[in-house]
Each structure stands twice: as structure tokens, then as C-alpha cells.
Amino acid sequence: MKRTTLAAAIACLAAPAPALAEGELHLYIWSDYITDAAIERFAEETGITVSVDVYDSNETLEARMLAGGSGYDVVVPTTDFMQRQIAAGVYQPLDREQLGNLEHMDEGLMARAATFDPGNEHGTVYMWGTTGIGYNIDMVAERLGEDYEVNSWELLFDPEIAAQVADCGISMLDAPTEMIPAALAYLGLDPQSHSDEDLEVAGELLASVREHVRYYHSSQYIGDLANGEVCVSVGWSGDVFQAAARAEEADRGVNVWYAIPEEGAMVWFDMLAIPSDAPNAENAHLFINYLMEPDVIAEVTNYVWYANANRSSWPMVDAEITADPAIFPPQEVMDRLFTGVTYTSREDRALTRMWTRVRTGQ
Prior knowledge:
With 362 residues, the chain is of the alpha/beta class. It contains 16 helices and 11 strands.
């Protein structure tokens, strides 16, 4: 799940040659989630003109996909949203004959993603990660003590603790499908629960800390963490690591890091998928297969700091990334992770109403 605008987000052009595929490719992807170099090389190698549009929430992508006629050839939905979009006929099955690089994918991670898309029929994993806590090491220590360990959702969901760090800025994702499961995990309830009672209790917990939250947004926190404008954010793992890298580059004494809470956290998979009405489906297969080349996806991981599911690429990924348990968690942490929930339309409406109350405090 990724998020700040691609520098070359409009178009990467290459002169077509008779031996090349030619044509166009329209990509709709999370912001700041692919390298300009990868796009440019694909254009050069294939003669295909690539245009890129970006979004920063699954809800935005879903609205475009369900409306139909988006004009996109490749999109990057997260598995829980993708599941119900598949049921609505949004995506076409992948032609595996055109995807020889599927052989490089990790079977275990693909199996987890297949929980939402049996047989991985409609998509392959692009990146995966967790939803946890990004924090300013020094600001939190100043308020809670040097011995305080950031390893629990209590930092955000315990009103007494949240109040102590509120002055330096708390942010949460503007995404009820992320925040509700996190709240349930903290409460010791099933984070995948569909129980009306459980969902209501989670909403009450989120409302109880509303006064301590500076804002709800799914991308602003990257820059704000890097600049020291906020000190605690619920965020996607790669986003927080990008914030940490920016802070280090700026060299202004801002130290940012990421924690996977001990109560458990959501593991999610962003998938490469082709809309049913994609105008350039063959080029879409070419592009997906290209992104599954180990050296290509390794380069992207080194840029976005998200784990990929391409096992053959891992030796090419920077050792600092593969050795970090917050990016490539050890098995004991993986065992505490849970996948997202696909809610019914009735539950979605209830969650939307609840989330509006949480955000507005009314």
C-alpha cells in the first residue's frame, strides 16, 4: 500500500521500432511506488508508451474500477479490496502463458495472497508489508522516558499514553479497514471479526482517542514524520522507512523508525492486476512479466523499501532491507500477522458511518 507523487508520473516515451511491441500502457498505481528508471527501461525495451496516474487510497482505486471504463491496463489493488472487485467482474484472469517470470515468486507468500484470489488467478504480488507504528525516536523518549519501548498499539489506543505524545503530533490512516482491525487486535479481539458488537467496540476505542489525533490521512504522514511535524503515525511499513530515509538525508536530527505491535498487525499484499476492459491487455501482460524480472523488482524494492514476493530477487535487494525484521519479518512475527478483511456492503456502510463519527468527533 504506497503513497507522494511520482516524479515522472505523466509519461515515459520511447521511439517505436518494427521489432518492438509498440502501442500504449496505462498504469494506475499507488503514489511513489515504482522507479522512473523501471518505467523508462520498459518503454525503451518494448517501444510501448507508458502513462502513469497515481492514487493514495484503495477507496479511490475501487471507485474508478467499479465505475468501469477507466482506460487503465494495469492497476495495483490490495488483496482485501481486490477480492470483492473480482466478485464484481472488475479483473480479467491472467494469461499465465505470457507470464514466464511467475516461476520466481515465493510459493508461501503467493499462497497467502490466494486467500483472497484462489489460485492467484487474477493477480500476482507486487509488494507486501505490514501496517504498524512509525515514530520519532527522540520525541517519544522525551515524553515517555528513555526506557519506553514502542512495541504495542497502546501508544495510540491508550488515552493516557496517547495524551502524553499528542503535543508532538499523532496521525492515523484515513482508512477504517486498516484502523478497525488494529483496534480489535489491541483489545484482544479477532482482528478479522465481522461481529457488529466487536466493530462497535473498536469504533468506541478509536473515538476515545480522537481528541489526541492531529489528523487522519494516508500519505501526509510520510513527509511529516521526516520533518518532525508529527511523532507517532499509524502507517504502512515502506512509507515509514521512506520517511526515515528522508530524515536521514536531511540531517536535521530527526530519527524515525517503525514497529510491528506485539498484539499483531495487518499484513497486506498489493497485487498487479488487469481490468476486464483494459484497452491494451497484451501490453499489460508484458509489463507485469517485466516487473517480475528479479533485477527489476529488486531495484524497485531498494527504492520503496517494501518487501517483494519474488524470491529470486532477494539476493539482489540491499542487505540492509532483507536483514531488517520490520520489512522481512521472522517467522515468529509472521505468525502474529493477520490479513485484511473483506467486509460486506452492509458492513461497509456501517463502517463508513462509524468512521465519519470517529474523524469528526460527532
